[in-house]
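[SOLVED] Predicted holo structure with pyridoxal-5'-phosphate

Edit: marking solved, answer below. Original request kept for reference. I posted the sequence and ligand SMILES and asked for the 3D complex as structure tokens.
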Amino acid sequence: MKKIQMVDLKGQYNDIKTIVNDSIQEVLENSAFINGPKVHEFQKELENYLGVKHVIPCANGTDALQIAMMGLGLKPGDEVITADFTFAATVEVIALLQLTPVLVDVNADDFNINIEAIKKAITPKTKAIVPVHLFGQCANMDAVMEIANEHNLFVIEDNAQAIGANYTNKNGETVKAGTIGHVGATSFFPSKNLGCYGDGGAIFTNNDDLAHTIRGIVNHGMYKRYHHDVVGVNSRLDSIQAAVLNAKLPNLDKYNEARQNAASKYDEAFSGNEVVVTPYRNEQDHVFHQYTLKITNGKRDALVKHLNDNSIPCGVYYPIPLHKQKAYTDERYVESEFKVTNQLVEEVISLPMHTELDDEQIAHITSTIINFLNE
Ligand SMILES: *Cc1c(COP(=O)(O)O)cnc(C)c1O
């Protein structure tokens, strides 16, 4: 059996080696390392793929979120509602910009931001909502957009984990995750569904004015060379990363299908097990950035240890709710309002998930888990 890895980047690379190498070689030969033609090419290809008017590449997913918020003109003291159960980057940039993060509970089934909790958290200071499409499945964007319209709020989608996922809205139109809100942000960190070989990110929007503003912000607030109209940052996708992404984007749907197939095989192996809750599918696509189980008999930590002892990698995303992280505690938070996240951190475990998983590996992983839980 091939060695089981949480993410198998080498295996995936071997499959596309010539294309990736040629694409990188081109950058080396023309030596346009910053803002070269590869970056522009990737921007256009991604705009086409997503069906969005503007893609603005940047240095990483965290920057993408920060720049999106800067572009919307959010001001210190503005409240931004986001999910308590996500990677810290989402809340970090809110705090960095001196906006006020307002963390809210998530759904016990799909782990995404809870709509009733959003409604309850809205105050006259609320300016934006940041739904996170966690683990590869869209939050309830119809409901989020409805609340946003009603209260005049911006919606910034954190699409770092769901690139390529389709969202079918209540009118029956299918669009890509990250293109529904006023602005979307994604990451091309190597292990993401569309990953480069270093850091990378992008911002998406259909709004021409916002796209223009953001294009200046990523480049030191310049709209005309050496004229700095707004405070900006330096956040660029470098040409070598764009070359990798250009080579990989045509495979994204295939990669997401490989993840979905692996997920179905995991599901099948666990079906009927009373302790293991397999990932819930809401009405939307799930592109399985992570395959995350709930272990309901209190043995999650013991299972993590057992898998480690048996050389099967796994992860606990996330072990501590954001509202309990030292940097993000706030005396306004009431524990009883975080019932779901407080429980999820005790129950979740993510299994190896990538495009190269084979049947033998899945059978070994699932039988090891089932045997342990049946002991
Ligand atoms: C990965 C990730 C980010 C940050 O992306 P980086 O490219 O690592 O900065 C933000 N939000 C979520 C939900 C993520 O998973």
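OP edit: Residues 194 and 248 are 7 Å apart (CA to CA). Thanks to everyone who chimed in.
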